[in-house]
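I'd like us to work through together how a protein chain folds, taking it slowly. To get us started, please write out a protein record for me. Go ahead whenever you are ready, and we will take it from there:
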Amino acid sequence: MSTTTVIAVAAGAALAYCIYFDYCRRSHPDYRENVAKKRRAKRAESSKSKRGGGAVDEEMMKQFFVQQMQLGQDLMRRGQFEQAVQHLAQAVRVYSEPSQLLQLLQQNMPPDVFMLLMRQLEQDVTQ
């Protein structure tokens, strides 16, 4: 027998085994049920990630919010208003109730800095 014949027979045997294995897998009584479970789990995972991913993502967002607010306040104390406004705008974007936060910031910030913040937020919306 030539080498090509041996290789062809081996490849045919491997292909036949793959087809047999797939047939056995698909004819197993629990196959459809297992496939359905995997699809349901995958859908639940994807919908969970679309909704925000759960408590871990919420906690990360809270930490990010607090960090951005602190950076903005520190920069405002130093007189670096443009940079402070950028950090405060990021905090407003991730906050769950931005209108309430804006009202609070309006009461506690100088009017010219608050106007800079509003302009930054408008630019972010238009982009």
